[in-house]
Write a structure and sequence with these properties.
One of its GO terms (biological process) is protein lipoylation. Helices cover 30% and strands 29% of the residues. It is α+β, with helices and mostly antiparallel strands and 333 residues long. Strand 13 and strand 14 form a beta hairpin.
């Protein structure tokens, strides 16, 4: 870091606001400064820019536990955030970096942890580990000579939720997106001093991560907050960005539904909308599913849109004893 460093104070725990804040700082704040801040999200899955959201999450678990799903600007894999996790963001000039260089930004994290007696190391493509177990995933976004590097630090996350929320379903997906690589994970807290809590840990991060730099504290103005909220509304609150921006994919699902029988569906999805649909199975039905195929074509793969599209369709003619809610669940979960 060479330019003046600005530490941004933000206390929001809304993942959609926090990602909008990153975009605002990167695109609209003066680039004669470098920026750093810490942030936390309530229960959230953040998927990488190039990933297929449907493939990365356990949709049923996510819905039942009120977990927010949002897509970020940078690539890499899906990560789970909760209030036991703290995230950090650096925004700076790329300098001589012509390609993504995650190690340059991960090293300050390793050095900071060393200050509290935790031995960590940068590992593989974008991880930081303790005893070979991952506690930090990192990714970057580069544009117009500027770089945004952000990472997760699992201090005291609920690891049981991590595995369930990101659990891949048994359905067969074929996607042009990038799949997350699962790895052994751990929290920092078991390795830290016994009396250390999250607030103490965050204060240490704030103190050491930009140690020796000329740091300016920046509090977001009302005007800036309004602009960030506008970005949030236009992008990070939308199904089109969080789900619809997924790459083209196909999925095959097989379910046995009480009273109906076994249904196997094959579906192609592009830009979040169904482009092709077929079904097979031992179910009963007097109607021809070709009409259903035409009805579904072009419909976005979200429950509300499907319910509206099927409102006047006689589903019973295709699948005897299958109600529309169960059918929509079959398509979306």
């Amino acid at each position: 870091m060479g330019k003046k460093v600005v530490f941004i104070e933000s206390n929001s725990n809304d993942p959609r606001f926090n990602l909008a804040l990153e975009q605002y700082v990167f695109d609209e704040m003066p680039n004669d400064r470098e920026y750093f801040w810490l942030w936390q999200n309530h229960n959230t899955i953040v998927v990488g820019k190039h990933q297929n959201t449907a493939q990365e999450i356990n949709q049923t678990y996510v819905r039942e536990h009120g977990i927010t799903v949002v897509r970020r600007l940078s690539g890499g894999g899906a990560v789970y955030h909760d209030m036991g996790n703290v995230n950090f963001t650096f925004i700076a000039d790329t300098g001589d970096m012509e390609t993504l260089n995650l190690h340059a930004f991960c090293t300050p994290v390793v050095n900071t942890l060393e200050q509290i007696g935790v031995k960590a190391e940068v590992s593989g493509r974008n991880d930081i580990t303790i005893d070979g177990k991952k506690f930090s995933g990192n990714s970057q976004y580069i544009k117009h000579g500027r770089i945004m590097h952000h990472g997760t630090l699992m201090f005291d996350s609920d690891l049981s939720v991590v595995s369930k929320a990101l659990q891949v379903s048994s359905d067969k997906y074929e996607s042009k997106g990038f799949k997350s690589v699962k790895s052994r994970v751990t929290n920092i807290k078991p390795y830290a001093p016994a009396d250390m809590d999250m607030e103490t840990f965050k204060n240490i991060l704030k103190q050491y991560m930009v140690q020796g730099e000329d740091v300016e504290i920046h509090h977001l103005s009302e005007e800036e907050l309004k602009r960030i909220q506008q970005i949030q509304e236009e992008r990070y609150n939308t199904w089109e960005w969080n789900y619809g921006a997924s790459p083209e994919f196909s999925v095959q699902k097989k379910r046995r539904i009480e009273g109906c029988g076994q249904i196997e569906i094959s579906m192609n999805v592009e830009h979040g909308c169904i482009t092709a649909y077929r079904s097979f199975g031992d179910y009963f039905g007097n109607g021809d599913t070709e009409e259903l195929q035409e009805t579904l074509k072009g419909c976005s793969l979200q429950p509300e849109a499907l319910a509206e599209r099927l409102k006047d369709f006689d589903l019973e003619s295709c699948y005897s004893h299958l109600d529309k809610d169960a059918f929509i669940c079959l398509l979306t979960e």
